[in-house]
């Protein structure tokens, strides 16, 4: 446990709860403002104004939306299976939030620095699939069920390239602990794993392969979070809203929260593995920027940058078809990651 | 006041066994699947209490993220099921009771007659590198055979699914 | 390690508590006026016909099956990736053999066409003459 909270208060149950407070506060604020950000960015890309009525320039828009959702009736459709129907949002949100436990925000703040951190992240995100599945089943709606089957087959397929693209970093770092992986990348931008990690200048020959891995990791995490161009799960022109269709009010808000939380979580994973996480890009040139409190800024801004790319892609690319989706995953991403794995392994072992 | 780990053990054991009972006793297949989810989760927590963190996460990843997904897929894909027919059949109590009692007796017998190797709990925290080293040195053959087993499973699964 | 997983457990409890607090506050604050059309299954304004559980394309199931095999393979890859640098060339070759055997199965599935999904075949009407003539 390397938390400033723990070092202040020692290890007891109160500390355990306190450690989660900044994380859940971050998730809540991020989710609210990412929605606003998404609307503003899409408006900007489409030459519109976007929300601008509530607060100055619309800054309070999503807070108002949240307050509205909280007042909405707690509807469970007659034909739905009530228990499972209400359980599904809990599972989806819990799985998304538990992923945050291993995301390093700074060298002095991480929920839990497991020595299996990365593996834990993959395991826990696969829990969310169960939530989506039972949501689709219990809604007892054709669109929901189609959405669920689509989303599950998509998410499980893309779990493979996600893991395979992350493994090169594990191979070079020799650890699954998120903090160790970041500590390995100390000393400036050229030591980030996207440039082959720390080592002699010859490691730069790894750059094309690491870049491929990073891009594939980004693409497949995009699919894992059901973002466009992989949003056939909630393709509104085909199956209305997929598994979300019967959900309204606060139950829908939980799915929404989970989706946006996951956007940041996967962005943080990509930045941790390949972009140095909370490391300053200047290394030791400007020692001030390695301050543990400034590291929060680095971690979050790298995450937000990748979230911006996700949003950018959403408003740029059209949606893939199911067959294209599967072809991309099985016939392109998986073989490429396997070749990448082989080459990087060969380099590491020689 | 018992230790915290002991309390947690009983909580998770209760979750595991309780939901396992629901899995076999409920009449709705989907409730079985959800209970199985909770039960497998409880097992993962029990592994953690035994300090087998890699095993626990593998449990979550393979059993919950893989096999349970396949099970629920199976339920969803089964055609011609309506609310009435998606029920398990709780027939043949007597043979089932007979067999399970038999197995229970055998297991208890094995439990009490085996000379268990008592080992002090391993304090080393890094289980994964130990597993990796063991897998690549002492257990090379099982490791490679595992890949052949997986290959057979893959081909078999494809063959089965192709039969319409 | 123990306290770390304890922390994870607390994360889980906090997440569940967060959802429950949101639900309970919604239940307290929201009105409760159920009616038949509100609680009916949504199908774009139509009444639903027949069962919800329809036959799916079998490929979804095949994909899930292949996924499990690969999932297990990845489980083996993680411990290998952590230690293979210490163990050197031999460990690397072991994994190459392991993956090769699995890739055989993958290639088999690929060659036999189990990874091919039905492509849409839109019927594009052909015209005998050009409607818009270029100037």
Question: Could you write a compact summary of the structure shown?
Answer:
The complex is a heterotrimer of chains A (about 350), B (about 160) and C (about 140). Chain A has 12 helices and 2 strands.
Topology (SSEs and partners):
The complex is a heterotrimer of chains A (350), B (164) and C (135).
Chain A: H1 4-9, H2 13-45, H3 61-70, H4 82-99, E1 104-106, E2 109-110, H5 117-138, H6 142-173, H7 178-184, H8 207-224, H9 236-239, H10 249-274, H11 292-314, H12 322-349
Antiparallel strand pairs in A: 1-2
Helix pairs in contact in A: 2-3, 2-10, 4-5, 4-10, 5-6, 6-8, 6-12, 8-10, 8-12, 10-11
Chain B: H1 4-25, H2 29-49, H3 53-77, H4 93-113, H5 127-136, H6 140-162
Helix pairs in contact in B: 1-2, 2-3
Chain C: H1 2-29, H2 36-39, H3 59-87, H4 89-111
Helix pairs in contact in C: 3-4
DSSP E strands of chain A, number: 2
Uncertain spans of chain C: none
Helical segment count of chain A: 12
Percent range for β-strand residues of chain A: under 5%
Q: Give the number of DSSP strands of chain C.
A: 0
Order of helices and strands of chain A: HHHHEEHHHHHHHH
Termini of chain C, distance in Å? 77 Å
The chain pair with the largest interface is: A-C, 81 and 72 residues
Helicity level of chain C: 55-70%
Cα distance spanning the termini of chain A: 35 Å
- The whole-number mean of residue pLDDT values of chain C reads 78
Helix content of chain A: 55-70%
The domain count of chain A comes to: 1
**Oligomer state of the chains in this structure:** heterotrimer
Instruction: Please state the structural category of chain C.
Output: mainly alpha
The rough form of chain A would be described as globular
What can you tell me about this protein's structure?
The complex is a heterotrimer of chains A (350), B (164) and C (135). By secondary structure, chain A is mostly helical. Chain A is built from 12 helices and 2 strands; from the N terminus they run ααααββαααααααα. Chain A has one domain. In chain A, strand 1 and strand 2 form a beta hairpin. Chain B folds into 2 domains: 89 residues, NADH-ubiquinone/plastoquinone oxidoreductase chain 6, subunit NuoJ (Four Helix Bundle (Hemerythrin (Met), subunit A)); 40 residues. Chain B has 6 helices and no strands. Chain C is an all-alpha fold and 135 residues long. Helix content of chain C is 62%, strand content 0%. Chain C contains 4 helices and no strands. The N and C termini of chain C lie far apart (77 Å). Chains A and C meet through helix 2, helix 4, helix 6, helix 10 and helix 12 of A and helix 1, helix 2, helix 3 and helix 4 of C.
């Amino acid at each position: 446990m390397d938390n400033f909270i723990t070092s202040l208060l020692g290890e007891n149950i109160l500390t355990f709860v306190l450690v989660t407070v900044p994380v859940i506060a971050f998730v809540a604020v991020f989710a609210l403002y990412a929605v606003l950000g998404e609307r503003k960015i899409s408006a900007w890309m489409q030459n519109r104004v976007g929300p601008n009525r509530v607060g100055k320039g619309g800054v309070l828009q999503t807070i108002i939306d949240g307050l509205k959702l909280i007042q909405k009736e707690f509807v469970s459709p007659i034909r739905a299976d009530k228990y499972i129907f209400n359980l599904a949002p809990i599972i989806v949100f819990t799985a998304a939030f538990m992923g945050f436990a291993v995301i390093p925000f700074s060298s002095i703040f991480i929920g839990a620095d497991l020595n299996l951190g990365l593996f834990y992240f993959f395991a826990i995100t696969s829990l969310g699939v169960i939530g989506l599945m039972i949501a689709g089943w219990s809604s007892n709606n054709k669109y929901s069920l189609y959405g669920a089957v689509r989303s599950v087959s998509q998410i499980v397929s893309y779990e493979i390239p996600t893991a395979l693209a992350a493994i090169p970093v594990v191979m070079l770092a020799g650890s699954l602990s998120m903090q160790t992986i970041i500590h390995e990348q100390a000393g400036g931008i050229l030591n980030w794993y996207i440039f082959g990690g720390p080592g002699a200048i010859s490691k730069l020959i790894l750059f094309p392969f690491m870049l491929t891995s990073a891009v594939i990791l980004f693409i497949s995490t995009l699919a894992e979070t059901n973002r466009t161009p992989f949003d056939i799960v909630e393709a509104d022109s085909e199956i209305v809203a997929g598994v979300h269709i019967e959900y309204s009010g606060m139950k829908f808000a939980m799915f929404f929260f989970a989706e946006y939380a996951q956007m940041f979580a996967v962005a943080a994973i990509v930045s941790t593995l390949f972009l140095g996480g909370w490391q300053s890009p200047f290394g030791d040139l400007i020692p001030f920027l390695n301050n543990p409190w400034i590291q929060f800024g680095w971690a979050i801004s790298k995450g937000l940058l990748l979230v911006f790319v996700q949003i950018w892609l959403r408003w740029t690319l059209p949606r893939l078809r199911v067959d294209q989706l599967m072809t991309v995953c099985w016939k392109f991403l998986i073989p490429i990651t396997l070749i990448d794995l082989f080459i990087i392994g060969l380099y590491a072992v020689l | 006041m018992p230790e915290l780990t002991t309390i947690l053990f009983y909580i998770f054991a209760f979750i595991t066994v309780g939901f396992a009972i629901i899995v076999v006793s409920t009449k709705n297949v989907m409730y079985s699947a959800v209970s199985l989810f909770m039960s497998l989760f409880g097992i993962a927590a029990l592994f953690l209490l035994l300090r087998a963190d890699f095993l626990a996460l593998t449990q979550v990843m393979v059993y919950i993220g893989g096999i349970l997904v396949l099970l629920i897929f199976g339920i969803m894909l089964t055609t011609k099921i309506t609310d009435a027919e998606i029920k398990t059949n709780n027939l043949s109590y007597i043979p089932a009771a007979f067999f399970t009692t038999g197995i229970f007796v055998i297991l208890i017998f094995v439990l009490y007659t085996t000379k268990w190797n008592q080992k002090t709990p391993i304090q080393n925290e890094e289980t994964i590198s130990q597993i990796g080293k063991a897998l690549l040195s002492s257990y090379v053959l099982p490791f490679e055979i595992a890949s052949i087993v997986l290959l057979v499973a893959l081909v078999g699964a494809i063959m089965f699914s192709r039969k319409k | 390690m123990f306290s770390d997983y304890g922390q994870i457990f607390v994360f889980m409890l906090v997440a569940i508590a967060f959802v429950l607090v949101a639900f309970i506050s919604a239940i307290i604050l929201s009105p409760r006026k159920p009616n038949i059309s509100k609680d009916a299954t949504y199908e774009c304004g139509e009444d639903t016909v027949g069962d919800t559980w329809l036959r799916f394309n079998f490929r979804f199931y095949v994909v899930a099956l292949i996924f499990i095999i690969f999932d297990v393979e990845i489980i083996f890859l993680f411990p290998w990736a952590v230690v293979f640098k210490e163990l050197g060339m031999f460990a690397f070759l072991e994994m190459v053999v392991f993956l090769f055997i699995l890739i055989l199965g993958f290639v088999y599935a690929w060659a036999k066409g189990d990874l091919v999904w039905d492509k849409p075949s839109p019927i594009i009407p052909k015209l005998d003459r050009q409607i818009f003539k270029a100037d």
